[in-house]
UniProtKB/TrEMBL annotation:
This is DgyrCDS6662. It comes from Dimorphilus gyrociliatus. It holds the Pfam family RRM_1. Residues 153-211, 490-539 are annotated as: Disordered. The keyword Transmembrane helix does not apply.
Length: 605
């Protein structure tokens, strides 16, 4: 229990002083001094700590100590709705005898009447006759003195005896009307406790109906509304608390962006409605971080209402994509559009985009684009690894998703860091932005999870420069904290200057050729023998080190020539085989074998 009660406090003590005094043992989340409706201090207070250990330390330290001249008593609070509670003693508590004496009009006499009714019933069941019940003469005597409503008309009046022979009452002939009136009053008074019990049952039924209504609402939505939270509470704390009762789909805790603190309430979404009901029944009224939780059924999310019918087909499709964007989907983390690949290649080699996309017939356009994309992806991977991004996590489909990191894809070429910051910073503070060369993808890390979710909902599938932006939640632990990020000096790819660099490359190549010719003249015949021996050894090893790879998801329009042309850039091929269907055409995958095993590692691209 993280809540404590402090009794016998001084009359003039203030909340600030009490907070300052008890904050020595831990972080205080709640301090509540109790007053009467008239404003009279009742000399006790409730204090809530963030952890149970802090509350226990405060009890050990402050119990039976003095504040001014008052010896205080510090105890752990009892749970809300606990059956076995201590008897109230204060004159301000309704259950105490002192309160009943001071407020006789407000006292509910139903319990006292029920108790007196039970006592009367017990007295009536007492066997007054005793051993006479076994005597036959006494039985005959009782039969002659039966009740008027039971005995025959010829028998004498004067005595009323019940059939069981246990209770005897004597009656006289006089004042029969008064006695009958007394009987009616007696019957009414006996009926009063039964009516009161029925009223209590009706009240219980109303509370039961309310509980059933709450359960039915939770079963429909699987969402809970939790309030009275500590303002420094985090979403991870709530997820850890509620995940004990089942898988939590989402925790949404609104935050004040100026102070970056919680507003004191949150919404919890479960994957199973039964788990949500179980969590509500068991955690409602429970203490959490020094406060008593109040849990109610939550309404449906606005996105769950469906797509309006009055929208156009294009608007409906866009809205459906935005609604389904939040689902965990294992997209290609390094997705690059063909148009962006053409832009980067044209910019990199200082040519027009039309020249890149032109089909000259000498080489295949598909092979050219695939090689360009491979080069871009390889450079992007190297850049991300240098900046502390774990590339291996992206290939695992069942990894936990981060609540603060987004992968931004399908950006137009040349996107800068400032463009990303201007796009996302309006939704919350950004801690980190990693944008690889050419600006086609980016990783954005927010300070708060709610800012990340708001940005996701607003920017997913939003058009920027005639291309929609694809967003995905990054895997959990995507950044390696041990590696410091590399400072980005230039966002745009460098343009090649054709004349100078070509001249320099030609001059270097001429020098290399001249050096190689001189080395060939100087080499001795012994060196040639060693080189021949090495080549023979390598040829023997190549036979044992051959590598095969399988290529899946090959387009049905691709030919064997195009596949060979694409993969021959990474090494010398032994063969390429595309298994064919009976009806014609290949089956969508290929087998490729390289002469060297090192060249077969091309599958990492």
């Amino acid at each position: 229990m993280s809540r404590i009660i402090v009794k016998n406090l001084p009359k003039n003590i203030k909340e600030e002083r009490l907070r300052k005094l008890f904050s020595e043992k831990g972080v205080i989340t709640n301090c509540n001094l109790k007053y009467t409706p008239d404003g009279v201090f009742r000399k006790f207070a409730f204090i809530g700590y963030q952890t149970d250990s802090a509350a226990n330390n405060a009890i050990k330290f402050f119990n039976n100590t003095y504040i001014d001249t008052n010896k205080i008593v510090v105890e752990s609070c009892q749970k809300l709705g606990e059956k076995y509670k201590a008897r109230p003693w204060s004159k301000y508590s309704k259950g105490s005898s002192a309160y009943k004496r001071l407020h006789p009009d407000e006292v509910d006499h139903t319990e006292e009447k029920a108790k007196s009714f039970e006592k009367k019933a017990k007295i009536e069941k007492i066997n007054v006759v005793g051993e006479l019940d076994k005597d036959e003469k006494f039985k005959e005597f009782v039969s002659l003195h039966q009740n008027l409503s039971v005995k025959p008309s010829w028998q004498d009046d004067g005595v009323t005896v019940n059939n069981d022979g246990k209770d005897i009452a004597f009656e006289s002939d006089d004042d029969s009307d008064e006695e009958s009136g007394h009987k009616e009053k007696k019957e009414k008074s006996e009926d009063e406790p039964e009516k009161e019990v029925e009223e209590d049952n009706e009240k219980q039924l109303t509370t039961e109906e309310r509980e059933r209504d709450k359960v039915n609402r939770v079963l429909q939505t699987s969402r809970l509304f939790v309030r009275n939270l500590y303002y420094d509470c985090q979403e991870d704390h709530l997820k850890d608390l509620f995940s004990v009762y089942g898988e939590v789909n989402e925790v949404h805790m609104p935050v004040d962006f100026k102070t970056e603190k919680s507003l004191g309430f949150a919404f919890i979404s479960f994957t199973s409605a039964e788990n949500a009901v179980k969590a509500m029944t068991e955690l409602d009224g429970c203490d959490f971080q020094g406060r008593l939780l109040h849990i109610l059924p939550a309404e449906k999310k606005r996105d769950d209402d469906g797509v309006p019918e009055n929208l156009t087909y294009k608007a409906k499709k866009l809205l459906e994509k935005k609604q389904n964007a939040g689902s965990v989907h294992n997209w290609n983390a390094l997705f690059v559009s063909p148009s962006a690949v053409a832009d980067v290649m044209a910019h990199k080699y200082n040519v027009d985009k039309m020249d890149v996309l032109e089909d000259t017939g000498k080489d295949s356009l598909a092979v050219r684009m695939a090689l360009g994309e491979t080069e871009i992806v390889a450079e992007t991977k190297d850049f991300l690894i240098k900046n502390g991004v774990k590339i291996d996590i992206f290939g695992k489909p069942e990894t936990k998703r981060s609540e603060r990191v987004l992968i931004v894809k399908n950006l137009s070429s040349g996107t800068r860091r400032k463009d990303i910051e201007n796009m996302f910073e309006k939704y919350g503070d950004i801690e980190r932005v990693v944008i690889p060369p050419y600006g086609l993808t980016a990783l954005v890390m927010f300070r708060l999870p709610i800012a990340c979710r708001n940005a996701f909902r607003a920017i997913a599938y939003k058009k920027v420069k005639d291309s929609p932006i694809y967003l995905e939640r990054a895997p959990f632990g995507v950044f390696d904290e041990d590696i410091k990020p590399v400072v980005e000096t230039e966002d745009k790819p460098k343009k090649r200057k054709k004349n100078k660099k070509h001249k320099e490359e030609e001059a270097e190549s001429e020098k290399v050729d001249s050096n190689s010719k001189t080395e060939e003249k100087v080499t001795a015949p012994d060196q040639n023998k060693e080189e021949k021996e090495k080549k023979s050894i390598n040829k023997k090893n190549v036979e044992h080190v051959t590598g095969k790879i399988i290529v899946k998801n090959v387009p049905f329009e691709a030919t064997q020539k195009e596949v060979r042309e694409l993969f021959s850039t990474f090494g010398e091929l032994k063969y390429v085989r595309l298994p064919k269907k009976v009806s014609g055409g290949h089956r969508g995958f290929a087998f490729i074998e390289y002469i060297s095993k090192e060249h077969s590692k091309v599958n990492k691209f």
